[in-house]
Design goal:
By secondary structure, the protein is α/β, with parallel strands linked by helices. It has a single domain, classed as HAD superfamily/HAD-like (Rossmann fold, 3-Layer(aba) Sandwich). The protein has a 5-stranded parallel beta sheet with strand order 3-2-1-4-5, with helices on both faces. Strand 1, helix 1 and strand 2 form a beta-alpha-beta unit. Helix 1 packs parallel to helix 6. Bound molecules: magnesium ion and zinc ion. The site of zinc ion (ZN) has 5 residues, from loops.
């Protein structure tokens, strides 16, 4: 985040336990509950002219617990509650499938940035676990960890940038982007 880094153009968010409460393998739109600060954080990012996206590991599909239709219904509910996002990606694979999209792999960040016409250095990824910020680092994007009480202490310790909530995460990124907040 020095002077040589390109200007921030987009913020990509993890979904579960970052934008909405994590209900494991949830396929029911009625169980979607926004996390505290999610609306305000998104509002600040959008007002600053940044584009927004959601990147989510959904291994419940590979495990046969969830269908694509259910995941997309939950994602649609997230948009109804939190407003429109410019890009969505979810990984349907399991941890042993060796895909390039499941975080901490960088595939979804690269692909989402590409859809927005950006390079990964112009995007940031905010998430609640190590895999989110590891994916950011692997892609060459900025990563910010917003831990919950369920985040493992070693993941908090390993993260380069840790802030207490989503609004603080967006504020920090906007500051780095040149005081757009
Ligand atoms: Mg999460
Ligand atoms: Zn995948």
């Amino acid at each position: 985040m020095d002077d040589s880094s390109p200007r921030l153009r987009a913020i990509l968010f993890d979904r579960d336990d970052t934008l909405i409460e994590d209900v494991p393998y949830n396929g029911d739109p009625d169980r979607v509950r926004p996390m505290p600060h999610a609306r305000e954080a998104l509002q600040r990012a959008r007002r600053a002219g940044l584009r927004t996206g959601v990147l989510s590991n959904q291994s419940g599909i590979a495990r046969g617990i969830l269908t694509v239709v259910q995941v997309e219904a939950v994602n649609a509910q997230v948009e109804r509650m939190l407003g429109p996002f410019d890009v969505w990606r979810y990984c349907p694979h399991g941890p042993d499938d060796g895909c390039r999209c499941r975080k901490p792999q960088p595939g979804m960040i690269r692909s989402a940035a590409g859809e927005l016409g950006l390079c990964p250095a112009e995007v940031a990824m905010i998430g609640d676990i190590g895999a989110d910020v590891e994916a950011a680092a692997a892609a060459g994007a900025r990563g910010v960890l917003v831990p919950t009480s369920r985040t493992r202490p070693d993941e908090v310790q390993a993260a380069a940038v840790v802030v207490p909530d989503l609004v603080a995460a967006v504020a920090l990124l906007l500051e780095d982007a040149g005081g757009l907040s």
